[in-house]
Amino acid sequence: MWHLRQIVITFLLIFASAALHARSFKVTSPQSLSNRIERQARTQEVSPCQDFLDSWGQKPPQLQFIDCQQVATSQGDRAIATYSTTSADAAAVEAVLQHKFRMAPLQFVEGTWEPVVSNDKGQLRPASGEFVDDNGNIFEVVMTSERTTFSRRQDWRKISKFKVSIIQHLEMTR
């Protein structure tokens, strides 16, 4: 009898322990579990963000890599690498970007210097540079100034810094 009583008590302890542990687990639907696994897999993927110009061997020495962020936009995901340069080096960096990536010359437009071209009607449109890597990934190359009132190139030295952005459109390849 003592032996049967010991078995029942052991069974109850095991059952109670299992019940306590079951409360700490959330029961999820198969779809919810699938979504959670997919989210975990995405976060464990290698980020496409990096110092793109350096990885291509195309980084002018006057540019300082600031950071790279992956951003979701209404037009798709982007990886944006940001660089800065001083106003003293801005013209040299602009020339390199024009030569290597076919970026248009910077023009003063509504308080910033940016790469634009005008059509035969005098309307301006963005004219960033472009790079396509060996894997067919497309990158947009843009240089801009901080907001300024200096609208003449001769005054660039009065602008504290210029920014270069390399934008990878993650869903676009060639």
Can you describe what's shown?
- The structure is a single chain.
- Mean pLDDT is 79; it is low at 1-28 and 39-45.
- It contains 4 helices and 8 strands.
- The chain is globular and about 40 Å long.
- β1 and β2 (76-86) form a beta hairpin.
- The chain is an alpha+beta fold and 174 residues long.
- Strands 1-2-8-7-6 form a 5-stranded antiparallel beta sheet, covered by helices on one side. The chain has a 3-stranded antiparallel beta sheet with strand order 3-4-5, with no helix packed on it.
- The termini are far apart.
The fraction of residues in strands falls at: 35-45%
Low-confidence stretches: 1-28, 39-45
The helix tally amounts to 4
Largest sheet: 5 strands, antiparallel
Rg (C-alpha, Å): 28 Å
* DSSP summary, beta strand count: 8
Overall geometry comes to globular
Q: Give the termini distance in whole angstroms.
A: 80 Å
Estimate the helix proportion, in percent.
25-40%
Output the strand order for the largest sheet: 1-2-8-7-6
Tell me the series of helices and strands, N- to C-terminal. HHHEEHEEEEEE
How confident is the prediction overall: mean pLDDT?
A: 79
* SS-based class: alpha+beta
Topology:
Layout: H1 2-24, H2 30-44, H3 52-55, E1 64-73, E2 76-86, H4 87-101, E3 106-109, E4 112-118, E5 124-126, E6 129-132, E7 137-145, E8 161-173
What tags apply to this protein structure?
4 helices, 174 residues, 33% helix, 35% strand, alpha+beta, 3-stranded antiparallel β-sheet
